[in-house]
Amino acid sequence: MPITSRPLTQTELLVELEPVVGRELDRHLAVAKEWFPHEFIPWSEGRTFDGVLRGEAWSPEDSSIPEPARVSLIVNLLTEDNLPSYHHEIATTFGRDGAWGTWVHRWTAEEGRHGIAIRDYLTVSRAVDPVALERARMTHMQNGFATEYDGMLRQLAYVSFQELATRVAHRNTGKVSGDPVCERLLSRVAADENLHMLFYRNLLAAAFELAPSQTMRAVTDVVASFQMPGHGIEGFARKSVTIAMAGIYDLRQHCDEVLSPVLRQWKTFDIEGLDSEGEQAREELSAFLAKLEVAATRFEERRDARRARAESVS
């Protein structure tokens, strides 16, 4: 139940939720498994590139990974590269003290492994052009990342969905790659993302008990405007279409594998005690989900038709 009938301030939310952060942090540390990026990289397959060491120039033929998986790997890595900006955002919101601060730094340390491991894999396997990749990294990181959501409730809602979306994208990229090494690595990364999702999801569940109407508004605002954190990557719209057409991450998966399970876990449509604004937010959420379901079905139909035409031509 909410501790007060008025909206809670950011400070009050941080204080009231800190015991939950402490419990969730203990749970996370108990189940998180130590792993080492270097163990997932086939180092013996690597060879020197051209440049100062005068090795072999990169060629698209160096890797048999399908283009959609290659595009997704680049998007996933460039997204991971913006970790300094993400750290700044959550540290500014949650703080660097107490349980909140311990989580912020632990999360950052775990996320740091993902960029290291994926970049090493791409470099050793020659799956992508290393020069183009580095230029894209410089451009993307110089643009930085700033959250579009004010307040901790919206940010908690966002990461609850985003961590799960990232897990889905990583796992499906590994499957589409056709490379067992890639799939094993991305499954390991996805396991981290899933634990992060559980932390944030459970924390927001506590926020629903504390301030149900405020939290409902935050969730609705995020669901209705959700974008992946890599949306600032140059050419992201084109890349996301390639990724969606390959079934790596599309509207159907966003609805069925990200939004629905998290909302169901929160019992979003069964929560009692909402005020008029909270009920309005829930009605908006229901209406938006209905529209998204229609859009997801239409996308599937268009993709199926396109595949059918391609098969008939071939």
Automatic annotation (TrEMBL):
Alphabetical UniProt keywords: Fatty acid biosynthesis, Fatty acid metabolism, Iron, Lipid biosynthesis, Lipid metabolism, Metal-binding, Oxidoreductase
Signal sequence annotation: none
GO molecular function terms attached to this record: metal ion binding; stearoyl-[ACP] desaturase activity
CDD domains: Acyl_ACP_Desat (cd01050)
Cofactor(s) needed by this chain: Fe(2+); Fe cation
InterPro entries: Fatty_acid_desaturase-2 (IPR005067), Ferritin-like_SF (IPR009078), RNR-like (IPR012348)
Ligand binding (Fe cation 1): E80, E111, H114, E193
UniProt GO cellular component terms: cytosol
An example Gene Ontology biological process: fatty acid biosynthetic process
Cofactor note text: Binds 2 iron ions per subunit.
Residues involved in Fe cation 2 binding: E111, E163, E193, H196
The family this protein is said to belong to: Belongs to the fatty acid desaturase type 2 family.
Subunit structure: Homodimer.
This protein's name: Acyl-ACP desaturase
